[in-house]
Amino acid sequence: MNFDGFTSKDFETFTIDGLEDRMDAIRERIQPKFQIIGQTLTDDLSSVLQNEMFLHIAKHARRTINPPKDTWLAIAANKRGYKQHPHFQVGLFDDHLFIWLAFIYELPNKENIALNFLNNMDIIKNSVPDDFCVSLDHTKKDSIPFYVIDLKSSLERFRDVKKAEFLIGRHINVENPILNDGDKLLKVILETFQTLIPLYKLSLELKNVQSL
């Protein structure tokens, strides 16, 4: 199966009523595409990082009533799971595709990661283009353009608030024609991940982290 991009029908999955019917559509329409691009992305990250990375595709297994509002693939350095580790994501809401380097609240050492980011904000500012965006909650569709975000206060919140998160990357609107071109879209995703690798590496450098 070739990857031809994501279609309007893929995004319309999130308008389907009912958990079972929506999950059937996610499994039939979206997850096969995640499997294809996920393997390419995982191989590329493994090569660039010179460390084996593992693909995880969201199963939404804990849901019993409410259908998911989004779905995603995640790539992490842990074979068993990704939520407790810095990880890369590609996923869909009904109105956009997201490409993230994600640090979510399950991270056991997120305070130290936040401190390291605060101590090295110049690396983040120099690595991240202005057209990137930031999310402080992976369950919400909203994002903040990187060029307007108060980076220091966002990272302090990530450090101090138990449920706070920090995700950085790109949003691609559902109407953007690049979504229908598999080769171009995959190139954008790969370029986004490569841009964020300095932050990923920084998140792993937790020795001698000093409080501000």
Can you offer a commentary on this structure?
Helix 2 crosses helix 6 and helix 3 crosses helix 6. The longest helix is centred in the N-terminal third of the chain and has 31 residues. Strand 3 and strand 4 form a beta hairpin. The radius of gyration is 17 Å and the shape is globular. Helices cover 41% and strands 17% of the residues. The C terminus is likely disordered. It is of the alpha+beta class. It has one domain: Protein of unknown function DUF1054 (BirA Bifunctional Protein, domain 2). It starts with 7 loop residues before the first helix and ends in an 8-residue tail after the last helix. It has 6 helices and 7 strands; from the N terminus they run H-H-E-E-E-E-H-H-E-E-H-E-H. Strands 1-2-3-4-7-5-6 form a 7-stranded antiparallel beta sheet.
Topology:
Elements: H1 8-12, H2 19-49, E1 54-57, E2 71-76, E3 87-92, E4 96-103, H3 110-119, H4 121-127, E5 133-135, E6 144-145, H5 151-160, E7 166-173, H6 182-204
Antiparallel strand pairs: 1-2, 2-3, 3-4, 4-7, 5-6, 5-7
InterPro entries: UPF0637, UPF0637_domain_sf
Pfam families: DUF1054
Family: Belongs to the UPF0637 family.
Query: How is the quaternary structure best described?
Result: single chain
Unreliable runs: 208-212
What's the level 1 CATH class? Answer: Alpha Beta
Compute the number of strand runs.
Answer: 7
CATH T-level topology = BirA Bifunctional Protein, domain 2
Kindly report the name of the CATH homologous superfamily: Protein of unknown function DUF1054
Q: What is the CA-based Rg, rounded?
A: 17 Å
Helix content: 40-55%
Mean pLDDT: 94
**Side-by-side strand order of the widest sheet:** 1-2-3-4-7-5-6
